[in-house]
Amino acid sequence: MIISEPFKIKEIKHLNRRKSHERWHVLQNAGFNILEVPADTVTFDLVARGMSAWSHFQKAGYMIGDEAYAGSRNYQHLQSAVKSVLGVERLVPTHNGIGAEKLLVTTMVKPGQKVLHNRGRLDRLVAFNGGISIDVTSQNAREYAAPDQFGADLDLALVKQNLHEGGVAYVHIVLCPDAWNGQTVSFENLEEVNGLCRAGGVPLVIDISNILENALWNTRAKGSEDLMSMVRDIVDQADVVLMDAAQDARADIGGFISSRVDDIFTKLRNQVVVFEGLHTYGGMTGRAMEVFAIGVREMEEVDYTLWYDAQVDQFYRSMADRGVPVYRGTKAVAIDVANFLPHLKEDECAKFVLAAALYLSGGIRARIVGDAAFHLKGEGRRFLSLELPRHAYTGNQLEYIADVVVNLYENRAKVFGLSPVNPETSFADELRLVPNNNRLFVQLPDVTSHIFEPHKIAIFEPIQMLSKEKRKAAMEKAGSNTFLLESQDIYIDLLTDSGTTAMSSYQWEGMTNTTDSAYNSRHYADLVADYAEILGFKHIIPTHQGRAAEHIMSTVMIKPGQSVPGNMYFTTTKLHQEIAGGLFLDVIVDEAHDPESTFAWKGNIDLTKLRAEIERVGGENIAYVSFEMSVNMAGGQPFSMENARQVSELCQKHGIALMFDATRCVENARMIKVKDPAYTHVTVQEILREMMSYGDGCTISCKKDFMVNMGGILACNSDVLAGQFREMLRIWEGDLTTGGLDPKDIEALRRGLSESLDDHYIAARVEQTQELGHKLIEAGIPIVKPPGSHAIFINAREFLPHLDQDEYPAQALAAAIYIETGVRVMERGNVSKGRNPETGENYRPALELVRLTIPRRVYSNSHFDYVVSGIRRLWDNREKISGLEMVYEPKVLRFFQAQFEPKEPWCF
Ligand code: P61
Question: Is there a contact between 489 and 475 (Cβ–Cβ < 8 Å)?
């Protein structure tokens, strides 16, 4: 069974969110027709066509369009992909699925001829050509049964009878017809219809746009696992196949039609230039063909098909299990409208009412397209499809949607009908409706049960799991150091949240239209203005990343021999303080060193310790106080606003500068909002401003909270300091107005700031980490409490009590976690802390931890469920993990490159 996405998130798109009263106005303007609602007001657009996520290979393909009029390379790529994956030899490209159908009908239907099909709705294209469209789907389709029942089979007797009567142009099978909620056609039925067609001399046309979903259920029925052979077998039944690129191939646009029959193929190929474009592009751009071609190749990734199916199943169960009348389709879950709104009369447009109510209460758009009459009466009126785009939404989001549906079901009595203003109109998008009661829907209670990611998946990157044997070999090669593993060997990468963020399409948009000059670009000016506004510091200086800012600040502000008190060390921060001749002194509260303490503000500075240090050396001998937000090494622990205020006062009294490490400032602000009742109703942005107001400047590694893969900031209020910082910047980093960053990254950084301050985003971000922590606690794993915001830290001393600290328990545990689960984590203990230069002994810090760091917007909760179950397994085998011996040790920051060997061979 597949339990988590076989990919990680590479790029996200923000979801639009509106309040329900705002949606009410939108609905009024849209004539209560869901199709007329502007897409930018929809949160969840539940259409499986063209709304799916792309793989990052598809995105790359989009950039290599060969826009030649004739014989484009992308056409060749598409042709060879379709041949190799689907076994389809001769390709006639079209601009979309309708383009393919248009070629089909215009070349193959003569006036008066019949088309037999299982589409379940009126076919205007056939009628327009003078043909007669006859639905021959079996009666079982009306049950809307689960996909294993093959409800979309053709009624063989009806097919036979019509073929016998003659005048049939072709038989057209859709493998998972939308109008029957994507029910499936069985392979036996295909074979039998094929036999009938052959006998009758009539071509069989198969629409293979949803061939993966169909083949999945046919392989299951046969007890087989070979999905791609079933795909080939299905294609083999057809004389003509056609495909909409925007479905299984996850493209946005495109299609093709093909025939193995020479005569038909020649007609299609001649006709394509009349309606679509030249026979080597057929109305597609080169880039569209490339995206399509890559999508076709990726149809062979069976895990993608399994994951999509698992999502449909989860979505179905989350509603069915709570009593909602729903049907499980192959790519949609359909609501049984009559049973959902039994109090509405025939003429009250129940399907449109339900669609409007779903939009109103959750920003959800169900799919109502095509003929108006189909949706107002008869079969079409019976169900409302919620189609899942492929790989675009997370389990959390599906749960939320299900909550909205359940909430609506429980309050269905409050829902009133709609009356059509123009019931005779042809197409659904033209329909206008008015409420039968002006208070329609307004009493529906809001659903607040789920915090969900405020973005959908735009681009994903496949991940793969090596076998345990291979993982063991990879870890051996890496000298039991997770920093030395290769990324391609990792299933879920929790090494760091630094630079690993999935950027948004909004950031990418800014990066594609940049002024690339290093000298005073608009991006620099905008960045400085935005960060100054939000952080409240006068001078904003970009650097290439955090440690560069630390180096400059330490060099400028520390005189050799000066003390630098701080709330726990961070590796690079302390190193730069020491390089400048400073002496770091830990003044964090004692609770921070106790993994079991549940003190809410473990990031606080202990004022007594700080006061004592000031008394000991005198204020003038303190370079500055180094005050980290969401203290990394303590477990991602926040400081309180009260503490910031008090530390600030104390510093001010003694003329000591207070410099923040604001790397995870937004997360600290969120924690203040959650933990301090005085800030419950204050926005994260305002909290951040207040926090910053207590300091004199900061360094930031923007690769964390500010949503970029590269970038840093050095900020201060003092003109003198800023001048000195800038001098160093030019010597060490790059130009004044880039700090060594690409202007594209500067624009991404500017846009990342606004995204990080979105209250919905930061709530979901912190919630994800908290949930992981709580699940590990429930599984009995010893972690640092309370769970922090960017990472969960496992207490390796407790996990491996049989190891001495000089056998590097955290290092051993990190290596073992990779071998057992394919998940990469980071040691934060004896190896990271290093040796005391005076004694040469390991420091043996109080905290011997393994860090599970959560990249931003990259993984879903399903991934973390996998992580928890794997670590739980290891916990049961923990005594089998022996200690390590260090066999290679660099002098500084040794943890990055050190190598180890297990003292005894590991066998778990
Ligand atoms: C991390 F193993 N953090 O957490 P730069 N301040 C703070 C950081 O967390 C931080 C920097 C400054 C990393 C990357 C990393 O020993 C390690 O942009 C609170 O990385 O230069 C970085 O910012 C430095 C991992 C750094 C390490 C040092 O994963």
Answer: no
Q: What is the CA radius of gyration of the chain?
A: 31
Q: What are phi and psi of 855, to 5 degrees?
A: -60, 150
Of all protein residues, the one whose alpha carbon is nearest to atom 20 of ligand 1 is: 546
Q: Is the CB of 828 under 6 A from ligand 1?
A: no
- Please give the helix or strand (H or E) that residue 559 lies within, else none: none
Are 635 and 625 within 8 A, CB to CB?
Answer: no
Q: 788 CA to middle of ligand 1, Å?
A: 16
Ligand 1 midpoint to CA 54 (Å)? 31
Which amino acid is residue 221, in one-letter code? A
Q: Indicate whether residue 554 lines ligand 1 (CB < 6 A).
A: no
**498 CA distance to ligand 1 middle (Å):** 7
User: Does 569 contact ligand 1 (Cβ within 6 A)?
Assistant: no
Which ligand 1 atom is at minimum distance from the Cα of 826?
2
On the 0-12 / 13-18 / 19+ scale of CB atoms within 10 A, 110 is exposed
Low-confidence ranges of the chain (pLDDT < 50): none
What's the pLDDT at 684? Answer: 98
- For the chain, helix (H) and strand (E) counts, in that order, are 33, 32
**Ligand 1 mean position to 572 CA, how many Å?**
7
Cα(702) to ligand 1 centroid in Å equals 10
What is the model's pLDDT at position 440? Answer: 60
| CB distance 498 to ligand 1 below 6 Å | yes
Name which residue sits closest to atom 16 of ligand 1, judged by CA. Answer: 571
| pLDDT, tens digit, 9 for 90 and up, residues 229-260 | 999 999 999 999 999 999 999 999 999 999 99
In terms of pTM, does the model score above 0.85?
yes
| Closest among 862, 883, 896, 903 to 9, alpha carbons compared | 862
- C-alpha to C-alpha distance for 460 and 462, rounded to whole angstroms: 7
Which atom of ligand 1 approaches the CA of 548 most closely? 21
DSSP 8-state code for residue 658: E
3-state SS record for 592-603: HHCCCCCCCCCC
Q: How far is the CA of 580 from the centre of ligand 1 (A)?
A: 19
Q: How far is CA 211 from the centre of its chain?
A: 25
Please give the single-letter amino acid code of residue 113. Q
How close is the Cα of 701 to the center of ligand 1, in Å? Answer: 7
Name 115's bridge partners.
133, 170
Helix axes 522-535, 684-693, angle to 10 degrees: 80
Q: Which helix (H) or strand (E) holds 55?
A: strand 54-55
Are 878 and 463 in contact by the 8 Å Cβ rule? The answer is no
Q: Which two tokens stand for residue 869?
A: 């179950």
> How many angstroms separate the CA atoms of 387 and 367, rounded?
7
Cα 808 to Cα 36: distance, rounded to the nearest angstrom:
62
Distance of CA 232 to the CA centre of its chain: 31
Please, where are the H alpha helices in 536-683?
546-557, 571-579, 607-617, 641-653, 665-675
Distances (CA, A) of 472 to 468, 469, 489, 810, 884: 6, 5, 11, 18, 15
**What span, in angstroms and rounded, lies between the C-alpha atoms of 88 and 104?**
16
**Preceding omega of 435 cis (within 30 degrees of 0):** no
Give the residue whose CA is nearest to atom 15 of ligand 1.
498
pLDDT at 442: 59
DSSP state of 513: S
Cα angle, residue 220 at apex, residues 216 and 225 outer, rounded to 5°: 80
Mark out the alpha helices in 201-334 (DSSP H runs). Answer: 211-222, 227-236, 262-275, 286-298, 302-320
- Ligand 1 pocket test: pick from 482, 701, 703 the residue with the most ligand atoms within 8 Å of its Cβ: 701
The one-letter amino acid code at 724 reads Q
- The Å distance, Cα 252 to ligand 1 centre, comes to 39
Q: What is the pLDDT of residue 524?
A: 96
Contacts of 649 (CB under 8 A, 6+ apart): none
Closest CA to 72 of 296, 248, 298, 292: 292
